[in-house]
Amino acid sequence: MNAGAEFSLVPKLMLVLYHRYEYGAQPIDLSGHDNHGRIVRKSQSASAEELGAAAGHGLRFDGATTRVVVPPSPSLESLGAVRIDARLRLEAGGHRRTIVEGFLAFSFFIESDGKLGGTIYTGHDWYGAYSTASVVPIDHPIDVSFLFDGLTSILEVDRRVVAAAEWPIGPASGVAWPFGLNIGAWPDADRRMFQGVMYELKIWRARSQESGPLLSERRAQRVDNPCA
């Protein structure tokens, strides 16, 4: 399965969030949709390591209380399809580490054994794709991606497809009140916290709410050996 080819079949997506965390402590949305972030941590005094990361080398998440919160907005209200790209460095596993979760909409995360996962909420349950174990390394910067088009879920690590699945659940819902979009944490509480550094995050949504999968020219294929 050619990753670039699969993702090039999605011309109907619109970039609605683009954070480059090296630009400063409070993330500014470069997409033009004003989905700016707010760094939340229980300790208001960041360590020298955290300040250094935020100033020039990404934002460090401590695995306990650090998160970036983006409030609900018109551009996140009805997604239809969703694509997420993130550049990050994971420092520790041990339990699920959230990359980003849209409240009652989607979740993109790393499991305790290094699996990459991406799921969509239907109002009753979560459906999506999971890679095999150990595809996300420790202490190594990588690019990870999650795409859902209403039928097909695809996960990538460094532009290589590591998982694909089909769930005919229809368009993705929008990011809901009151918790909005949470980067590096479960929206409801300080759980499933990311530990490591995030450098960049991009989120796309469908330009229109047309029915039917965007990847209509192909069917998802099972990835038997994503590390081969």
List the helices and strands and how they pair.
Elements: H1 3-8, E1 13-20, E2 38-40, H2 48-56, E3 59-62, E4 67-70, E5 82-90, E6 97-102, E7 106-110, E8 116-121, E9 126-130, E10 142-148, E11 152-157, E12 160-166, E13 181-183, E14 195-206
Antiparallel strand pairs: 1-14, 2-4, 3-14, 4-13, 5-10, 5-14, 6-7, 6-13, 7-8, 8-9, 10-11, 11-12
Order of helices and strands: HEEHEEEEEEEEEEEE
Q: How many structural units, i.e. domains?
A: 1
Structural class: mainly beta
Which fold name corresponds to the CATH topology? Jelly Rolls
**Topology, number of strands:** 14
Shape: globular
CATH class: Mainly Beta
Q: What is the residue-mean pLDDT, rounded to a whole number?
A: 86
Q: What is the name of the CATH architecture?
A: Sandwich
Folded structure, characterized:
The chain has 228 residues and is mainly beta. It has a single domain, classed as Jelly Rolls. The strands form two sheets. Strands 1, 3, 5, 10, 11, 12 and 14 form a seven-stranded antiparallel sheet that branches. The protein has a seven-stranded antiparallel sheet with strand order 2-4-13-6-7-8-9, with no helix packed on it. The radius of gyration is 16 Å and the shape is globular. It starts with a helix and ends in a 22-residue tail after the last strand.
Brief digest:
Helix content is 7%, strand content 37%.
Name the features.
228 residues, mainly beta, 2 helices, disordered C terminus, 7% helix, globular, disordered N terminus, Jelly Rolls, seven-stranded antiparallel sheet, single chain
